[in-house]
Amino acid sequence: MVGLTWSWAFTWEVLPMILSAAKVTLLATLLGSCLAVFVGLAFALIRRSRHRSLRSLIYWLVEFIRSTPLLVQIFFLYYVMPEFGISMSPLLTGVLALGLHYGAYLSEVFRSGIDGVEKGQWEASRALNLSMFDTYRDVILPQAIRPMIPATGNYIIAMFKETPQLSAITLLEMLQIAKIIGSENFRYLEPFTLVGILYLMFSIMAAYGIHMIENRFPKEGISLK
Amino acid sequence: MEFGEIVSVLLQGAVVTIKIVAMALPLAAAMAFIFGLMRLYGGFPLKQLAVVYIEFFRGTSALIQLYWIYFVLPLFGLSIDAMTAGVIALGLNIGAYGTEVVRGAISSVPKGQFEASVALNFTPSQSLRRIILPQALVGMIPPFGNLAIELVKATSLVSLITIADLTFKAKSLADMTLQVGEIFGVVLLLYFVIAQCLALCFRYLEKRLSKGLGRGGVK
User: Which domain of life is it from (chain B) (predicted)?
Assistant: First the structure.
């Protein structure tokens, strides 16, 4: 039977192709996580706004994004946005979808991180007559960052593992390449297993990296100036 | 195509999605308990087996696991249909996350409870069944609820191995009619409704199970 035994020759043949597709996966994750941090912070800050309607709008938006599948959101952005005259490449669409989806999750992390800063810090900023912007930038956020690192890192790793879904809108990332190789050669065992191992390796490395960052991070926070 | 027709086709897909959830959820719960208990109380090979299972299914992507089960297992002579492959992949994936929930909830039961059941001469299985689990179960419900919603969302992946679930129907309808706005809008809404219903069930379950345990203070 074809493909029953592991062929090392075939493995070495397909490895370079899969590794070059890994660049696309990593790029999508990197851009996606930058966008997610930005969106998450914006959502978290709006959730603290003075206007009740604004707060509940963001609450339901976050709830909606979190309880619908990423795959459908990707399809929605990819097929519906052109109707409004915005067409984007699969990569950009994917980054936007990942960024929004995980931005919604991160907003909850950031919100609890900001809430975790002591009340006295807010009062002291008020006493020093700092503006809202200065209070967040110089006092609150620098102290809020460290406790948020582990949860943020987990979500970024989760995002990394969801990038294969971008193959559904024809982005040539690792899994898509593996599937193409598999269907061309009628050998799925090696490409799929390789992709699985690569994901496992990257995830473990990233988890270790996040642990390092958390340990090295100064306890008193960092200046955001 | 008329809006009513679109909705009725999508509802058929939603039924398939709900069916998959209904089958994968018990599997995930069973995996979570079996491997969670193995991880906590298992001897040398069992504990390591549980760790490998958890790390493997949490460390790789759900879509890869699905493809692996659907495309690679047949090469070993284990041919399974798409539906079974989907249920197994999702059940094992969510179950791996559930394992940690079970472990966390059981280890957060106060140590005195274990000691008291030893003092009262309970066998290990009795103390687990009668003393520990009833208390641990309440703590498991909220994270299990979150995982159930994750499962609902993950079912959209099975559309990629040709199961005619909600996402699959949406995709083929969209390719056919090009009314993408309505179709994907309705689909997002349907998933949202399914997820919220599940969340409601779990909130009810939590209330039921926490009765008489004196948790959460006076209300």
Answer: Bacteria
